[in-house]
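Long-time lurker, first post. I've been practising inverse folding by hand and with some scripts of my own, and I keep getting stuck on stretches where the C-alpha cells seem ambiguous. Below is the full C-alpha cell string for one chain I'm working on. Before anyone asks, I'm not after the true native sequence, just a reasonable design that respects the backbone. If someone could post their per-position residues I'd love to compare against what I wrote down in my notebook.
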C-alpha cells in the first residue's frame, strides 16, 4: 500500500475511532522499519588484513611483481596454495579453521625471528636511511634541528621491542604496545615514498628468507602498507 492509500484508509478508520487509526500507523511503521528485529546479513570480511583495500591491493601487486621477477609463485611452484583435506568418514573436504595472522606467522617466536632478520637489514640499507642522515626538522623553535637517529644498542633494542609489539597488535596477537603513535613519531623526519618502499622490500626479503607462505606475506605486507599515510611525508 502506498502512502496515499494509507492516508485514505486512516481517514475512514478515524471515523470509527482514533485509536484504530493510530494503531494502523504504528503497524505501518513497524512493517516499513522492521522495528529493528531483523538481523543484518553476515558480511564476508578479509581475515586480519590491513583493513584498507588499497593497501591490500598494493601488497598483492608487490607479491605478484616479485614472483614474476623470480619466476616463482603459485602458478609455477604451487607455493601458497591450500589443499583440501578429505574427511576419512565422509570423503568431504574439511573446512579450514580460521587462525589469526599472528598464529600463522608463528606467534611471538615467529615475529621475533622476522624482526631479527629485518631490522639489521633495513638499518644497513642506504635506500631506507633509517638514521635520517642529511635531514632536518623545521619548527618555530628549531628552524633547522637535525633529525638524526642514533642506532646505539639501547635505541635498537627499544625499536625492536616496539616493532614486535606493533606487529603483534596488528596481526591479532597480544595487544600490548608501549610505543608512541605512528604519525607523531615520524612527523618531521621527511620520510619519502621510495624510502618506505625500500623498507618494505627489506621486509619482503626477510619473509622470503624465513620461507613465510605467500598468503601470510601478502597479509603482513598489507598491514605495513596501511601505515604509509602515517609515516610518509615526502611524496
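-- Answer (accepted) --
I ran through it position by position. Result:
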Amino acid at each position: 500500500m502506498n502512502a496515499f492509500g494509507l492516508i485514505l484508509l486512516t481517514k475512514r478508520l478515524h471515523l470509527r475511532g482514533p485509536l484504530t487509526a493510530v494503531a494502523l500507523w504504528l503497524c505501518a511503521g513497524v512493517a516499513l522499519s522492521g522495528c529493528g528485529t531483523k538481523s543484518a546479513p553476515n558480511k564476508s570480511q578479509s581475515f586480519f588484513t590491513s583493513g584498507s583495500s588499497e593497501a591490500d591491493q598494493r601488497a598483492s601487486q608487490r607479491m605478484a611483481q616479485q614472483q614474476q621477477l623470480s619466476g616463482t609463485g603459485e602458478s609455477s611452484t604451487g607455493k601458497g596454495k591450500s589443499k583440501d583435506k578429505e574427511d576419512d568418514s565422509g570423503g568431504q573436504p574439511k573446512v579450514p579453521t580460521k587462525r589469526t595472522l599472528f598464529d600463522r606467522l608463528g606467534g611471538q617466536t615467529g615475529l621475533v625471528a622476522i624482526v631479527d632478520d629485518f631490522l639489521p637489514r633495513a638499518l644497513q640499507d642506504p635506500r631506507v636511511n633509517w638514521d635520517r642522515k642529511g635531514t632536518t626538522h623545521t619548527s618555530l623553535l628549531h628552524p633547522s634541528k637535525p633529525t638524526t637517529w642514533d642506532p646505539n644498542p639501547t635505541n635498537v633494542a627499544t625499536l625492536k621491542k616496539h616493532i614486535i609489539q606493533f606487529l603483534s597488535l596488528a596481526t591479532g596477537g597480544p595487544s600490548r604496545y608501549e610505543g608512541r603513535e605512528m604519525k607523531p613519531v615520524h612527523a618531521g623526519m621527511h620520510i619519502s615514498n621510495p624510502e618506505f618502499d625500500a623498507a618494505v622490500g627489506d621486509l619482503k626479503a626477510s619473509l622470503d628468507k624465513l620461507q613465510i607462505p605467500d598468503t601470510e606475506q601478502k597479509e603482513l605486507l598489507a598491514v605495513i602498507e596501511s601505515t604509509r599515510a602515517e609515516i610518509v611525508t615526502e611524496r
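A couple of notes from the structure itself: The first helix runs from residue 3 to 16. The radius of gyration is 28 Å. Happy to go over any region you disagree with.
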